[in-house]
Amino acid sequence: MIPASFEYLRPGSLNEAIAMLSEHGDEAKILSGGQSLIPMMKFRLSRPACLIDINRIPNLDYIKEEDGYLKIGGLTRETALEHSDLIRSRFPILHDTSFVIADVQVRNLATVGGNLAHGDPANDHPATMLALDAEIVATGPQGERIIPIKDFFVAIFTTALRPEEILTEIRIPMNGSRRGGAYLKVERKVGDYATAGVAVQVTLNDRGDVQRAGIGLTNVGPTPIKATGAEGALAGKQLTDEGIAEAARRASEEAQPSSDLRGPAEYKTALVQELTRRALYRAWERAKK
Amino acid sequence: MIQQTSPEIGGMGHSVKRKEDRRFLLGKGNYVDDIHLPHMVYGQLVRSPFAHALIKSVNTEAAMRVPGVLAVITGEDLAKAGLAWMPTLFFDKQMVLATGKVLFQSQEVAFVVAETRFAAADAAELVEVDYEELPVLVDPHHALDADAPILRPDREEKSNHIFHWEVGDRAATAKAFEKAPVRTEVTAVFQRCHPAPLETCGCVADFNTATERLTVWLTSQAPHAHRTLFALVGGIPENNIRVISPDIGGGFGNKVPIYPGYVCAVVASLKLGRPVKWVETRSENLQSTGFARDYHMRAEIASESDGTVKALRVQTLADHGAFNAAAQPTKFPAGLFSICTGSYKFPNAFCEVDGVYTNKAPGGIAYRCSFRVTEASYLIERAMDVLAYQLNTDPAELRLKNFIRPDEFPYETPLGWSYDSGNYAAAMNKALEIAGYRELRKEQEEKRRRGELMGIGLSSFTEVVGAGPAHTFDIAGLKMFDSCEIRIHPTGKAIARLGTKSQGQGHETTFPQIIAQELGIPVSDITLEEGDTDTAPYGLGTYASRSTPVAGGATSVASRKIREKARKIAAHLLEVSEEDLEWEPGKFFVKGAPSKAKTIQEIAFAAYTNIPPGMEAGLEAVDYYDPPNLTFPFGTYICVVDIDKGTGEIKVRRFIAVDDCGNIINPMIVEGQIHGGLAEGLGIAFMQLISYDESGNVQGGNFMDYLLPTAVETPYWETDKTCTPSPHHPIGAKGVGESPNVGSPAAFVNAVVDALSHLGVRHIDMPIASWKVWQILKEKGVAA
Ligand SMILES: Cc1cc2nc3c(=O)[nH]c(=O)nc-3n(C[C@H](O)[C@H](O)[C@H](O)COP(=O)(O)OP(=O)(O)OC[C@H]3O[C@@H](n4cnc5c(N)ncnc54)[C@H](O)[C@@H]3O)c2cc1C
Question: CB distance A188–B707 less than 8 Å?
């Protein structure tokens, strides 16, 4: 397992990194946790001529509450989400997600930014971020721009990031007090990618109606899927058993899984339905607290 | 009964901490890939992307131009030296590097040697091979079809049929079936899986052009046999070959065969006069080295209406891939599969096996089992459950009814084995009691009424291990004895060397414990060495749970030889006759006068300083042990599962393992072996499969898809034991390493089938993934 040869660059600042990216164009790849990129390089499925290691760039590793947003720095490790009190208490859905990603060793290195930037429909955070209506902050030669998460995943392994841009922050709106979310994943064993995964986030208004519902699906299509039909079925209504069943059914219709070693497509479709149902009940529980 | 020694001596029955662990825990193990020699270079294999294709040409020019590349060896190069093919360990031959055509995906096609691993990897990509694809044969059931491509035109027999083997009385069995009121059958595939040892295979071959000696550090479970094979096949005088198995990171049968990479490294070292290291990657290991199982089986049982079994008939198709690279005793083409009558009293039995070629990786090795015992045990334990459902009997009761009784040993099976000892009901009753079997059944009934799915699976396996007696057992002609040589130093410390080779089993601890038991020398004073053919006595190696039954016998007998000499020296020192002496572990004393004694340490010193007149100096012995019979460990496993109706996920709630491996040397190590084997069994039952698509592309050829269970998936193992010593073994031990892998798959599968049995489910093939369960639930209309 030896990658093809490559040049290795290690910028000390964001500006330096962007300059390097601008110079090398799409010959270059950003290296953050390396947990997806390096395996692909070792299988020689990816052969970047140049690696730009962003791990020494300061001030990109944080989790904080600011201006009505939860802000996660582009270099924040998965393990940091797992151990953050802010995440645990306010965003249990993110805690759920980190906890089922890979294993402890991988999570110690893997970054949330990399998990999104990789554009892998099998990764777990994309679904969560779709459910949370997150925003991606991309920093390039012209400065920052904001990409709504629903526009971020373009195709398999392809995102809206431009070659000279770095994902520097993830912003999650914190509006509404009665919020609850959950992430459920069926995997063949710990460390495996999802056979199917469902992220659900609901915000209830004062009357207990669903103010907004976000639902994201993992590994049941060429990109992470935002189940807008299912979301629509819930919005503005009380949560009921029937409503949840209907939303789960719609979510399963929005999934486009293919058959593989993890199981036949019809199984994955059924999983989406079952997991959506279960995740909605759990999210509801949490929102009521 | 074995006399208990003091904790300082640490003989049999003491849970002595593993002596080898300190160096492993400190990162000071010494594995093949840790070997670094001056001027060492690196090999990398080029492998076929196709499952069946003609090789039109191999162009090595571009590869040779990569800086640092020293050689690119092709099949044609080897053919010139008569080395393009090598014999397998079972009456077949195998390509070292392909000539003419390739027969499986990932087959070895060329070998690149370079100054660095990196250059070798880059150059391997640049070897241009022009292939022309041929029709591919994947399904063994079609191997004998008239229109199937003939894979091996090199053979005289122009057919994909490798062998037919049968044992038992066909006619008497057929008659018993005709007469029996109850007949049942099950068709079960024991899927192709892989031992996947943590350390992959590799070697460092170092041919010294000055001394003309070849030293090979090898991931070998059988270094002595490998040396002989290198000499016979390679034509190098055997005294000029030294094989060293350093620390080995798990073998499980995967490190018994000789692989093309080893041969290429040796050839490259001969050619270049430099040490050549070749270590395969994980994917290479899974895709090209010895796989296990791939047995497509059918069992039929005939019984009385009360469940008394009358006959067993077994038919099996064995998929060996492109070459029959099974490593097993030469008289047994299907290994010891005829143990398939298991723990039960079948008056009649007949078993036949046909082996075929397909376009898949070669093998058929014994993955943590004595040559197909796992397949056999799985089959009979599944079939007994199917019979129980048919008769509407409790599977535990059906087993208890049909067990061979303790007073019937030694028991001759209709397929030719002589079981040494057993008490099957005792092990089963203990397991049932620990499980709380009756309450579990009650709980299951209640849950069923509520629509919940819970299952209880049993497996009461009988194993056959410790190959084997010289009259029947040999590998490539070499009789399957094993050996131990013990030297006691003047200060009473000792070194022992064995013909076996630990791959993690704890030999450095357990064999000294046998010596401690026999001689009373503290276990901490005894060093154990294995794996260096220049120093260790010849033996056949470690696999098939044979180390304790065979080399353990040698260790015990060699110790006793030393004790007999020690008695003579003690008599001389104490000035009494030998008959006046009595032994207790660690010393001889004069009968009736226990204070007049000589310790084994004093005796050892005298062996070098105060030798009795007419006696040879020194205190050493060697024994080559030919076991009179195999040993037959057994046990009962009980598995309890809960099934999630919404997702098909299976949760193993409890697993109870009662093992009987005869007298135990180190209880802690035995328990560790059982934990490890059960985890493997769980992986096999629920996760593991190497399959091929219709083009012969291997699926499950890396750890993304070939899944190894972790602590998260494995339940708490509730282990216990009964003890029925082997009557013919010097220390009454039987061997245990394989029992959990052999016995557990049936328990897991039986539990899942049991959870669904009220829906009419009788069998599910492994690996039982969640989606399979969900499909069944959907079909039966009970999916949530
Ligand atoms: C054994 C194993 C199991 C795994 N299981 C799971 C799982 O179950 N679920 C799951 O979600 N993930 C899983 N992963 C993936 C892992 O969790 C990481 O999320 C993933 O590897 C990406 O994060 P990284 O920091 O390692 O990114 P890298 O591997 O360093 O980069 C991935 C890609 O993103 C780009 N990139 C990285 N950071 C940035 C940035 N800041 N800006 C722009 N582009 C960037 C890189 O150029 C590269 O193309 C697994 C990984 C392994 C090795």
Answer: yes
Residues in chain B, total? 784
- What top-level class would CATH report for the domain A7-52? alpha beta
B221 included as an active-site residue: yes
- CATH code, B497: 3.30.365.10
- Give how far Cα B646 sits from Cα of A191, B448, B477, B540, B642, Å: 22, 16, 56, 51, 12
How buried is B762 (Cβ within 10 angstroms: 0-12 exposed, 13-18 middle, 19+ buried)?
A: middle
- What is the rounded CA–CA span in Å between residue B336 and residue B357? 20
Residue of B221, B287, B503, B601 with catalytic role:
B221
Chain B CA closest to residue A1: B281
CA B409 – CA B621 distance, rounded (Å) = 34
A188/B281 Cβ within 8 A: no
Give the minimum alpha-carbon distance from A267 to chain B in angstroms, rounded to a whole number. 6
Pairing mode, strands A196-204 and B93-95: unpaired
Residue B369's contacts (CB-CB under 8 Å, 6 or more residues apart) are: B253, B292, B544, B738, B741, B742
* Cβ atoms of residues A97 and A121 within 8 Å: no
Q: How distant is the alpha carbon of residue B206 from its chain centre?
A: 29
B8 is an active site residue: no
Average pLDDT over residues B149-169: 97
Superfamily of domain A179-283: CO dehydrogenase flavoprotein, C-terminal domain (3.30.390.50)
The whole-angstrom separation of Cα A28 and Cα A47 is 9
Contact B460, B453 (CB under 8 A): no
* CA–CA distance, A131 with A275 (Å, rounded to integer): 14
Residue whose structure tokens are 């007469």: B179
Q: Are residues B60 and B204 in the same domain?
A: yes
Does any CB of chain B come closer than 8 Å to the CB of residue A190? yes
pLDDT tens by residue, B180-212 = 999 999 999 999 999 999 999 999 999 999 999
Contact yes or no for A192 and B648 at CB 8 A: no
User: Both B655 and B716 in a single domain?
Assistant: yes
pLDDT for residue B1: 64
Q: Which range of residues forms the domain containing residue B488?
A: 21-29+481-625
pLDDT average, residue stretch B298-326: 97
pTM above 0.90, yes or no: yes
Q: Over chain B, what is the mean pLDDT?
A: 97
> How many structural domains are present in chain B?
3
Picking from A1, A2, A259 by the largest number of B CB atoms within 10 A of its own CB, the best residue to mutate is A2
Q: Are residues B531 and B462 in the same domain?
A: no
Task: Annotate A115-145 with b (16+ C-beta within 10 A) or e (fewer).
Answer: bbbbbbbbbbbbbbbbbbbbbbbbbbeeeee
In the predicted structure, residue B784 carries a pLDDT above the cut 90 = no
b/e B438-468 (16+ beta carbons within 10 angstroms → b)? eebbeebeeeeeeeebbbbbbbbbbbbbbbb
Total residue length of chain A: 289
